[in-house]
Amino acid sequence: MSWKKTILLLLALIFIAAFYHVKVRPISSSGSFSSLVHEAARARVLPLESGETIEQLTLKDHLNETEISLRGVSDHVWQIEQPVRYSAESPVVDGLASLLKLTPRSRLLSMEGSQESELGFDSPRLEICVATTKKLEERCLLIGLDAAVVQGGYAKWEDESTYFLVNSNFLKAFDRTLNSLRKKQIFDLLSQEVVEIQFQSEGIERFLKRQGNN
């Protein structure tokens, strides 16, 4: 290769590098759609700090006009606070909390003008409200209308100016009734040794007593 061609090639490379730093790089580092997409790839629906945990979870179903409030009473143990006070099915509630913490935000976009009403956030069908060990006041995730491009819905935290998509599996997981969240176990005897059982019904009575291993 001649020295003239070498110089031309170097000049071309310098021009491409200068064009990238002057034109392309500022756009990619600004608050554009592209940067929001990359941010969404890293962000979770509910980002938590190290050591931060969910202390309270409230499901407000505006379509069915129900509200269920749950509170963590100890590690992995939940209590229903509203509409009744009752032990919750703790593994189910733990699963909902994990979904909030682990589900990534999809297609993160900035809100514009009248989009809040167009996407259904002014009258959400569902609100998922959480309080944590570091943020004691509840903040709510609003679920708006069904998404136009995927099976799911539009979602937005009430105190944020961006919205994103959640898929249909996420929405089905939070479609809960009181019965699906209350503890079903009638006798909590796992920590006790049963020595006698008496059963009675109409015309029948049975009495069982433990003797040794029998």
Question: Quick summary of this structure?
Answer:
This protein is an alpha+beta fold and 214 residues long.
Structural overview:
The chain is an alpha+beta fold and 214 residues long. The protein has 6 helices and 11 strands. The protein has helices at 3-29, 33-42, 90-102, 115-118, 168-173, 178-181; strands spanning 54-61, 66-74, 77-82, 86-87, 106-110, 126-132, 139-146, 152-157, 162-167, 196-201, 204-209. It has a 9-stranded antiparallel beta sheet with strand order 4-3-2-1-6-7-8-9-5. A two-stranded antiparallel sheet has the order 10-11. The chain is elongated. Residues 22-41 have low confidence and may be disordered.
Low-confidence stretches: 22-41
Q: Compute the number of helices.
A: 6
Over all CA atoms, what is the radius of gyration?
A: 28 Å
Strand order of the largest sheet: 4-3-2-1-6-7-8-9-5
Measured distance between first and last alpha carbons? 96 Å
User: So what's the overall shape?
Assistant: elongated
Structural class: alpha+beta
Number of strands: 11
How is the biggest beta sheet arranged?
Answer: 9 strands, antiparallel
> Could you report the average pLDDT, rounded to the nearest whole number?
82
Order of helices and strands: HHEEEEHEHEEEEHHEE
Note the beta-strand portion: 25-35%
Q: Portion of residues in helices?
A: 25-40%
